[in-house]
Amino acid sequence: MAVIHQLKPAKAAAQSRRGQRVTRALHRQSLAAVGIGLVACTVTALSLHHLADGIMLVTKAPAWEAWSEGTGIDLGFVSMELATIAATTDKLRKQIGRYTKPAIAGTLAGSAVMNGFVFGSQADGYVMMAAGALLGAAIPALICCLTRVGAALWIDCHARA
Fold this sequence. Notes:
This protein starts with 8 loop residues before the first helix and ends with a helix. It has 4 helices and no strands. The chain is mostly helical. The protein has one domain.
C-alpha cells in the first residue's frame, strides 16, 4: 500500500506574502529614518550657521574660529547623543552617561542661547525679538528629537534584517 502525502502550497504562499510585507515595512522604516536624518542634518547646518554668527557677535572671533566652536558644540552634542543610543549594554550606557548627560545638557543650553540670540537679533520690536529667540531656542530641541527618532528607527530596522 502506497502512502500519499499531500503538499500544502497555500501556507507557503501566505508565509512568503507575510515575509514580503515585513520586508516592505522595514524598507519604509529605513527610508523614514533616512528622511529624518536628512532633516536633522539640514536643521543642524542652520544651527551651526547661527552658532557661528552668535559667537562672532559676542566674541569678535574670526569666522573660522566661530565655525570651529559652533561645529564642536552642535556636532559634539549629536555624536554624544548617538553614542548613548548606540551603546550595546546598559553597563556601557551608564558608564558613558556620566559624561554624556551633562555634556548634552550643556551643549543644548549653549546652542539654544546662541540660536535664540541670533534669531532675536534680526527681529524688529520686542514681540518679534521674543518670538525669534523662542524659535531659535527650539532648534536644538528639534535636533535632539530628530536624532533620537531617526537613530532608533534605523537601529531597529537593521537589527531585524
